[in-house]
Amino acid sequence: MAIEVGALAPDFELKDNHGRTVRLSDFRAAEGGAEAEAGGGAGGAGGGKNVVLLFYPFAFTGVCTGELCALRDALPSFVNDDTQLLAVSNDSIHTLRVFAEQEGLDYPLLSDFWPHGEISRAYGVFDEEKGCAVRGTFILDKRGVVRWTVVNGLPDARDLNDYIKALGAL
Predict the structure, then answer these.
(1) Active-site residue among 30, 52, 64, 151?
(2) Hey, how many other C-beta atoms are within 10 angstroms of the C-beta on 26?
(3) Which one of 62, 82, 109, 151 is most buried, counting C-beta atoms within 10 A?
């Protein structure tokens, strides 16, 4: 079962399509103290960023490619001073690198390859029978709290306009 609205999103550390480590907690707002005053957090000035955390089954598949290219085409809505898009699949970083280059994806594609599906499981979106994540999206506020979510089956694309509306409500 997917984590619910109001829950603190489980932190994670994954490699992106360039082999860089990405931590969800790096996007959380600093909580007072010297770090906030020094401008800690990925959003600067201790403010953090809202995160669109998108799980998808596999690179190079029809529905996934369509969804990720639609996000690419509307990227300013999902990667800006207040928001960061993080897309997670169970593919290897090498597969994700080639996929991003082929499709012109300029946002982090994170590999939940090993331990296989560990983060997908933590968010309740791993399909044990298929061995991959289903289509789960979680909108997190700057404190890391889930504010909106949708989970679709493997064949069912999501509507990115729903993400824009959810971000607008934050």
Answers:
(1) 64
(2) 17
(3) 109
